Amino acid sequence: MKPLRLSLDAFGPYAGRQELDFADLGDQSFFLIHGPTGAGKTSILDGISYALYGQTSGGQRETRDLRSHFAAADTPTRVTFDFALGGKTYRVERAPEQQVPKVRGGGTKKQLYAAHLWELVDGAEVPLATEKPTVVDVAVADLLGFRASQFRQVVLLPQGRFQEFMLAGSADRQAILQTLFQTGRYAALAEALTEREKALREALLAAQAEERQLLAQAGVAAARELPERLEATARLVESRIREQVEARQSFDRAEAALREGKRLEEALARIRQLEREETRLAEASEARAQALAKAVAALAHEEAQEPRREELRRTIARLRELEPKLADLERARKEAEEAAREARRLQVSADADVQRRDAAGQEAARQKTLLHDLRTEAAQAQGREGLLLLARQKRTQREQLARTEQEVQQATMAHDAARANLEAAGQAVQEARDHLRDLLARRLAAQAAHLAQTLKPGEPCPVCGSEAHPRPAGASADLPGEPELQAAQAGQDRAEAAQARAQKAAADSASALETAHRRRQDLLEHLGEAAGLDPGTLAAEEARCRKALERSRQAEASLPGTEKALAEAEGVQQQAEAQLAATVRRQSEVALLEAGAQARIKVHEAALPEELRAPGALAAQLQEVDKELARSEAGLRATHEARNADQAAAVEAEAALRSHRARLEASRAEGRRVEAEFAAALEAAGGEPPSGETPVPDLPALQAARDGAQARFARAGEALGHAQSERAALQRLEASLAELEARQGTEERRHRAAASLARVARGEDGARVSFERYVQGALLDEVLVSASERLRRMSKQRYALRRATAGGDLRRAGGLELEITDAHTGRARAVSTLSGGEGFQASLALALGLSDVVQRHAGGIRLDTVFIDEGFGSLDAEALDLALRTLEELNQGGRLVGLISHLDDVKARISARLEVTPGPGGSHARFRVD
User: Fold this and answer.
1) In degrees rounded to 5, what are phi and psi of residue 20?
2) Which of 428, 449, 526, 711 is such that its CA lies 20 to 30 A from the CA of 130?
3) Residue 338 CA, distance from chain mean position
């Protein structure tokens, strides 16, 4: 971040507008803010800090106290700050909540706190965040990469805060490090590890519960009982397997008999089908032989037409000799036609060029008129924008007035209700007090009777001392008891408490009513005559202004297009005129071409017979002869192909018949073999052998025998399945228990590892250093390395900073204590023992080191500016020289360094200065470079 321009209005000691342009420094990057005490040097830094974060540079002065006491009442307080960052330019502006003069009438009104952030692009303000200060705060923090507290440790090093970090207690230093470096996330990580350890412990307990559940499912008390159960189940499975094997053998024999019976039936059916197919193939072979005889006769007829085909070939040859002459004639005719067509096209083109030229001229005139109208409309954009803003403000304020009227009504009703409640509460208090006084009076009256009951003859009265008691008081039936008195006292306390609440509610409602009246009055005064207008009227006016502004903006957007359209229309007009001239020249050339083509036509027609001169006559005659020859040759080819096809079909039919008869004989042999196999299978299954020459199997009986065997086999399989399922379930339980045991071992190891990590992160194991404290210690060491490098130069290699190690326990804040090492004594001591000048040197070095490290850990963000607001009066001449040399080194690489001091010795060392001069009407500041 590099400052460009700062503008202060009625801010601090600056009464009017104080503008500071940092470009006035030229090439100087090390400058002094100089002036007497109280002149307003620190207010410059307050302005920068307030513009960016809404806070002062030290974070101590209240922003409501920043308004200049010298400022006129009509000058509002405002701070505007332009700065460069990452190659871009930004502007931020803030105005605090303040009283400003009313637009109409006398008095003042409250102006709310407002903030704005823009990016400056070619001098124009592009909004990034407006109106809401909290939104601007977030946007600035995102841009710079720092919050306000970090910014004061990195860019603005405020007065009186140098020694804050060095002399702070370790607990305070821990809080500072946690804020600057956001180390709280490391504590969150330790908490996450603790939660992880807890989750793993719960998972381990769940695994143990699962093991107990699996043992209960197995019906055993312990895993060692499972093998005995598994052995008994295995014996049962073996018995069921033997039963199933026997049933399967019976089923297989019945299945084989049924299968062979079906095969025999299929073989017999196949033989019958092949016998029918043999008859069909014999008939087809006879038909193919007859078709072949007809094809041979047709081929002989076509071969007898060969003389006619030869005559047609000679005619075609004669006609083709005339084709070149006819082609010359056709070319001449085509050239003549093309010339005539071109002449007609050129005439159409010339007419179109004339029309295009005239239309372009009309369009150019129309665009000129439109351009004038658009420029007139666009010129009103700025004024219409102002009118729209005014209309929007009136409409918004009128809506606020309507809401405020409702608030006044609600506040009035609430105030009336509060007053009624207060009156009722007062009456209740009076009644409670009267009731308590009555009870106390009755009790006092009954005390004498109570005392008389304790008197005994001959014993003195505890009141008068007399031993004679001639007329003792009688007992009273109206004596209040202690519970009744306590209840009355509690009732009075409740009534008084309710009265106090009612009084507070009445006061609050009165304040709310007064505030609502005040807001309504402010809005009425600001609206003026517009307060009486209907909100719809104001909304319509705003819509009218918006439409007018939209017309102007549309006109602005249309200007480039209209200017382009005008240029295009004028270009089209010029182009059409040039094209028309070219077309006229081309018309003359085409007329000459057409005349030459007509002369050649007459010469070529004389060289051809009259009947062939017509276009297409020769081609038609040649085509007719070609067609006749083609038909004759095609007929010859077709009869040849038909004869060949019929001959192949006849041969194929005969071959198919012979092949089929071979298959028929093979099927009959297969049938005899299947019959023998069926008889053997039927005998094996215990059935009766078939009778007759061609036995037909009894398939329903075979199917019934097979179904019975299958049912027995299914029952055996079901019994086996039950036994196997029981064994498999036990095996799965055994495997699950083994897997669960292994998983429990894994869970235990993971839990032990997570527990160890959580304890280490919390600082309960090992070096007993929490993760967050370890990171803070490392960051502090990094700060001290950078700070010690500068402190050694300022102290002529005598002093350096380090973290105290004696008794260090980084779990506690004590692990962040600082001490100074002294090269003269070779010993370390507390930083609080440094003298004033030495303490300033150490504090300055520590502040600069802290700035370096915070910036280093800010995600690569580079801040090119540092302001140091601290007195140098505690330093002698030599120490001052060393300190200034150290600060001068900061401006290497283009870094802007600004110091605040009233010392003349510092002024003499620095040629570039921002001089602040106080006066009776406020202070003034200007840059000066000697």
Assistant:
1) -125, 115
2) 526
3) 68
